[in-house]
Design a protein that fits this description.
single chain; alpha/beta; Rossmann fold; 6-phosphogluconate dehydrogenase C-terminal fold; Alpha-Beta Plaits; 3 domains; four-stranded antiparallel sheet; 13 helices; about 45% helix
């Protein structure tokens, strides 16, 4: 692929990771970023310049006039505010794309402004609990799905260029209609986050003064509600921008709950069996090979002897072999779990290395 001039408006974890990848695949790519703060250079932008990831930082969007592609990496509603200015600046063959998890509202804004021939919505399905350029890395998007939602008026050449670029940075491109994208993300991510938060609030509101529910809520309950710990601001914005799709699938989920309630009322054995059986079969069929919308947890469980220093021994063994631990702790509620000790890692490579090492020292390891 020819050398590119790529611009970034918003430059945090995702923008920084895309930029690093673009420099990795072709050091001759020219990467520029927008500094919206005229009084000072942001820390991330300064670091990226020092790292030679960014070539230039500009305070005027007019300097983006020669960009072959512009990545809108600010929050969804903020990205939309830049479109009207960019309309009068970008060249004819420039590609506009974004990285937001909701597509309908920005597609509507693009249509209102007559930018359809330029815009290909983008949604890289990867991230981290850590934010900012400092935590970005060139492999963040590797093997992650990267959804593209091109407008109907976008040329085949533009779509092919961005599609290939996504492949080149190691991600898995998938083309969807913007409405289909928002329905899918509502079903597999947005509604589950609402349900998880609801379950946590249900337990919080139902607990007694001695907090017995909270004490016993480790294990399965904490796993299925893990996503409730996500940023409340981000999820507030998602709910306000993908409202129709979320309402649609939330209504369907409410219907499911009502059906289960009715089955409990009449003790419908067949319905209850099928409800759990079909869910189990479908869940087991979901592949683990690629990253999906929800952040994957890299964890193992293992049996240890209940004696002083047992956890310290394992932690030392892993540290000695340069394996970083994200979290470690005893599972007291193991009604649905195998293994006394749970260890969480930052990535798949660390997890696999730990499994091989611990098995070598004859620990019994359980993987999900």
């Amino acid at each position: 692929m020819d050398d590119l001039i790529a611009g970034f408006i918003g430059f945090g974890l995702i923008g920084g990771s895309i930029a690093r990848s673009l420099k990795d695949i072709n050091p001759k790519n020219t990467l520029i970023a927008y500094n919206y703060n005229s009084n000072k250079l942001g820390t991330g932008l300064k670091e990226a310049l020092d790292d030679k990831v960014l070539d230039f930082v500009y305070q005027d969007l007019k300097d983006f006039s020669e960009c072959d592609i512009i990545f809108l990496c600010a929050p969804v509603l903020t990205n939309i505010t830049y479109l009207s200015t960019l309309k009068n600046i970008i060249k004819v063959d420039c590609i506009l794309t974004d990285v937001g998890s909701v597509k309908g509202n920005i597609h509507k804004a693009v249509e209102d402004l007559g930018l359809q021939q330029h815009f290909i919505g983008g949604h890289p399905m990867a991230g981290s609990e850590k934010t900012g350029y400092h935590h970005s890395h060139s492999k963040l998007l590797e093997n992650a799905y990267y959804i593209l939602t091109p407008c109907n008026e976008v040329s085949v050449e533009k779509i092919e260029l961005l599609y290939q670029l996504v492949k080149d940075i190691g991600a898995i491109p998938l083309i969807l209609d913007s409405g289909e994208h928002d329905d899918i993300t509502a079903a597999i991510s947005h509604v589950p986050h609402i349900i998880a938060a609801g379950l946590v609030n249900l337990v919080r509101e139902s607990d007694d003064s001695k907090e017995k529910m909270r004490t016993l809520a480790a294990g399965g309950f904490k796993d299925i509600t893990r996503i409730a710990s996500s940023s409340p601001v981000m999820w507030q914005n998602i709910c306000l921008t993908n409202t129709d799709s979320i309402k649609h699938f939330l209504n369907r989920y409410i219907t499911h709950l009502q059906e289960v309630y009715q089955a409990l009322e009449i003790k419908d054995e067949d319905y209850l069996y099928q409800y759990f059986d079909t869910a189990g079969e479908y869940r087991d069929s979901i592949p683990n090979s690629s990253l999906g919308m929800m952040k994957k947890v890299f964890e193992i469980y293992l049996d240890i002897i209940d004696e002083a220093g047992a956890i310290a021994t394992i932690a030392t063994l892993l540290a000695t072999n340069i394996i970083s631990i994200k979290n470690i702790g005893i599972i007291h509620n193991r009604e649905f779990e195998q293994g006394v000790l749970r260890i969480e890692f930052y990535d798949e490579q660390a997890k696999e290395k730990a499994v091989d090492l611990l098995k070598k020292y004859r620990y019994t390891v359980y993987e999900r």
